Amino acid sequence: MPELPEVETIARILRPECTGRKITSVQVLWGRTLEGISPEQFAASISGQVIRGVTRRAKYLDMELTGFHLFVHLRMSGDLQVKSPKYRPEKHDRLIFNMDDDRYLVFNDTRKFGRVWMTANPESVIGRLGPEPLDSEFTPQMLYVQLKKRHRLIKPLLLDQTFLAGLGNIYTDEALHLSKVHPLRISDTISLIEAERLHAAIRTVLQTGIEHNGASIDWVYRGGEFQNYFRVYGREGQPCSVCGALIQKITVGQRGTHFCPICQEQSYEL
User: Sheet of 60-64: strands edge to edge?
Assistant: First the structure.
């Protein structure tokens, strides 16, 4: 699933291509992609809307229109690309937006898990999300205080989008290794120093991921290179780049989790 760096990369690609363009019509090829609105209502409401900007909130793409926000969550296999006037619909296309320069904005989603919302009230879609990890308001002290308020395994907690927005399996594993925190640590046992280290690690792995256009680890990602810099994710049985111990993989909260048994010492209590 695309995480914050992958979604940020897509937003940066779409921004100059789409900003200022008018949507003249839309082809809804799979109605269940739409949340809370019928294909007919969606087509009627979006026709004539101008795309004022393209940003990101957590793992959501946010396209600000004249009178609405169009939120896109890519989920497992979604992708959003601008296509030339000669484009013809493909098998897994779900929505095709016709733009006033005769190009198309195409939402393609092989596994059909991606969703699209059109709303005049952004809070109805993103209101429950936690803080953005790259915003200045997200401080080490804030993280420490919030960790102390909870008694949860740190790996699932960091994946909880209401706790912190944008992290997924890849960047959580990478941040925990960089901060030397074991994925089975209980959140309220983490000290202030460890919280400061974790805060810095989260921001570092996300910023590095964005610099490398995200990670391309299977066919649904495109163009990223961060996979070439993974510390632990997907490296089970390979030596840790820090200490040489073999990377291990366990299941935490039903998610495959990679860690180094030496760098991330199991100093926790169940």
Answer: 53-57, 60-64, 69-73, 115-119
Active site residue 2: yes
Q: 0.85 exceeded by the pTM?
A: yes
Task: Assess whether pLDDT exceeds 70 at residue 192.
Answer: yes
Which domains, and CATH codes, for the chain? 4-126 (3.20.190.10), 140-259 (1.10.8.50)
Among residues 75, 83, 249, 255, the one annotated as catalytic is 255
DSSP per-residue codes, 11-31: HHHHHHHHTTPBEEEEEES-G
Banded model confidence at residue 222, pLDDT cuts 50, 70, 90: low
Residue of 3, 6, 174, 194 marked active site: 3
Residue 236 bears catalytic tag: no
Token pair in block for residue 13: 């690609």
**Regarding beta strands 115-119 and 104-109, do their DSSP bridges make them parallel or antiparallel, or are they unpaired?**
unpaired
